Amino acid sequence: MMTPLLKVLLLCISPLTLYALDNGLALTPPMGWLSWERFTCNIDCAKNPDECISEKLYMDMADRMVADGFKEAGYEYINVDDCWMDMARDDSNKLKPDPDRFPSGIKALADYVHSKGLKLGIYTDCGSKTCAGYPGSLGYYDIDAQTFAEWGIDMLKVDGCYAEPTDMDQLYPQITIALNNSGRPIVFSCSWPAYQVDAGMDPDYTEIAKHCNLWRNFDDIEDSWASVLSIVDFYASHQDELVAAAGPGHWNDPDMILAGNFGLSYEEARAQFALWAIMASPLLVSNDLRSIDPKFKALLLNKDVIAVNQDPSGIMGKRIYQKSNIEIWKRPINPMTRAGKYSYALVFFNRRTLGGPVEVSANVGSLGLDNVDCYDVNDVFSIDNSQKYCPSDNITLTVNPSGVRMLVAKIINE
Q1: What percent of the chain has pLDDT over 90?
Q2: Which residues form the signal peptide (predicted)?
Q3: How far is CA 399 from CA 201, 340, 379, in A?
């Protein structure tokens, strides 16, 4: 029998220590498509029938994901973002979709997406309203989690507008509990630390990693190179605490992949994709798959970059060198030998925008690749054969402005 003292102690323990997310999902970073950056809150279907937030948009993207090889490459989520809702809940206090833009309902949309072998994500907010002013989930966490489960939702993004950052340590774990009790495994994407960072707080990443499968840490990405660089700099400056929190089932989310939109050159898009892979980030692209340029499509389907991103060890990479606008990033990847030695992925990143390509040279051993005799090194963006490098050798590469060279260095033999 529980003693009175033990009862009191249990009541004093924070819910953070009693309830952790229990879904067994996102063992590698989620991959898919998300509507927000490209289509934002366009609800004018009369004027923009092909670009408004509607069931047609998401069905179109599901079709393209399958037909164009994205599903086969590992992209599996079609994610609805803000502005899908009606402005009021129904008579049972359940969320409901806008009847004009989602006439078939969300359950029917989920069924369609599932029929394609894909998964459906949806959006809500932990506060009283979403960022666009639609009904939030505050006070309705259990009802909403059950509703999403009944609809067949596979991923839930929970934003943090209209909630106090100081309350989020209590609010987001309540959503975790509601999802655990929903009866359906649903990947939980939260914005918990992003709002706390913006408020000047220090997020508790140890606790956040217990309650969310992925979490936003910083500002919304915009379709610009400056935005990408600001996110990269945030991650580099906080990399020790972020690396410690990341791993199978719980990932830092630097936001959407922009390749195929308007703001990034091909070199810049390739740099973002490579850096997101090194950082073990979710690969959620936000573009129009119906009209994407073939070279950007090929980039997003690069199997070697995806393999780095999806590496089962789940170790987030770090920036290991920074000087004169040249950076080197490194991530341990499988195969790991019986002696505990990793292969590695490397990104050589040229942030310069003036002049032509820059020659970068680095000693293999100085990069930390010194625990085996030699490595088989392959450039993931080149069709050239791999080369053998040993710790005493130098790797010399030419890197374009605002561009990257990405290498995979696999252990040859011990």
Answers
A1: 90
A2: 1-20
A3: 37, 32, 12
The residues that bridge with 359 in the sheet, in sequence order, are 398
Instruction: Check: CB of residue 193 under 8 Å from CB of residue 208.
Output: yes
* 335 band by pLDDT with thresholds 50, 70 and 90: confident
* Matching residue, tokens 């997406």: 113
pLDDT at 297: 98
Residue 413 has a pLDDT of 66
13-60 confidence digits (pLDDT tens):
344 444 799 899 999 999 999 999 999 999 999 999 999 999 999 999
Alpha carbon 275 to its chain centroid, in Å, reads 12
CA distance 247 to 238: 16
Q: What would the two tokens of residue 91 be?
A: 């008579």
pLDDT of residue 336: 73
Q: What is the mean pLDDT of residues 290-299?
A: 98
Nearest by Cα to 327 from 233, 222, 230, 408: 233
| Angstrom distances, CA of residue 245 to CA of 33, 104, 352, 375 | 24, 40, 31, 29
Q: Within 10 Å of residue 139's Cβ, how many Cβ atoms?
A: 10
Per-residue pLDDT of 237-287, as tens digits, reads: 999 999 999 999 999 999 999 999 999 999 999 999 999 999 999 999 999
Average pLDDT over residues 149-166: 98
Beta-bridge partner residues of 397: 360
Give the active site residues.
159, 220
